[in-house]
Amino acid sequence: MARKGENIRKRKDGRWEARYEKGRNPDGSIQYGYVYARKYSDVKSKRNMALQNLEKENSKRRRREVLLTFEDLLNEWKAEIRHNVKDSSYFFYEIIADHHLRPYFGNLQIMQLTSDVAQNFIQCKIEENLSSSYIHSIMLIFQSILKSAQRKGLIDISPLYFQVPRIKKKSLEIFTDQEWQLLEGYLKVQLDEFSLGLRLCMYTGLRIGELSGLTWGDIDAVNGQLSVRRTVYRTKNANYDAVYNTAKTTLCIGSPKTQSSLREIPLPCFLLEETHDYRREDNIYILTGTTKCMEPRNIQKRYKTLLHQCGLRYLNFHSLRHSFATIGIKRGFDYKTLSEILGHASVNTTLNVYVHSNIERKRQCMELLR
């Protein structure tokens, strides 16, 4: 006969079910195991056997955790993600792990990883004047390493609790209407591919890497649209060798940052007509007029020089994208359409970044109360 508190019950199908605690999930909740049998005595025996086996496994894990260090987990994690993320992402994670996490946590044994230790690490990073968003990135990677080790059964530690500094939201830097018109007017009379490329950005919100990778084959004159199919970025050279004097970085041409960044953007008729005078073979890059692309850092330099020639204050290249989105909202773009043109993974990104009512709009809304 089952006793109260044994976590043994008889099911509707006539079998006995016994529940036992296997461990804890990463969020701290209990993870249960179950065994079944036709007889009460058999299910109780099965559960006792399962608990004994579990204790043996836990003993092995505890012995292993005494020997394992955080550096062991870090190396396991790097091997796991190496071919599951883009090179640019992997090298960004690697820099964070090797420059911040490894020096502080590397030699610590797993049982020495506590919430207090993690919080002290965060305080050190604050004192180093790292930005709040960068500290967030560091701690996300820290948690990812621990969760990966738990999934593999390498460790079984309680969740760590710590507080990261609140991210201070930066206000968007955009061109004023007057600056936008001045820039557009200047580019319109410049009869070169680079100026055309900047105008394409002004009317499509392309990212700098997407503009760099744009070829004439990406502009469909028949359907009047531009296709975003690749991005260009410079990243760490995995084959760097100081002895043989190989380059520390390498230029990569790959797929855009997310699946939603692969997109088609309709071009305004007047801009599509202007492209006809520049049209080249499909494999020719728009910015250079050759089969070799212009890399993003050179685009930045030429863009900065161009702003100086126009007499405009310097705003970074991404401000063209911000300005395009802001103008689109002012002129009545619906948020879903704008989100897809920008290549955002979610319309919420568009709403959170660009949709802010100004004082005039607030005043109009308040007048509706009359």
Overview of this protein structure:
The chain is mainly alpha-helical. It has three domains: 59 residues, no CATH class; 82 residues, Tyrosine recombinase, N-terminal domain (DNA polymerase, domain 1, Orthogonal Bundle), CATH 1.10.150.130; 188 residues, Intergrase catalytic core (hpI Integrase, Chain A, Orthogonal Bundle), CATH 1.10.443.10. Helix content is 49%, strand content 11%. The protein has 14 helices and eight strands. The model has no long low-confidence stretch (mean pLDDT 87).
Features of the shown structure:
370 residues; mainly alpha; DNA polymerase, domain 1; hpI Integrase, Chain A; 3 domains; 3-stranded antiparallel beta sheet; 14 helices
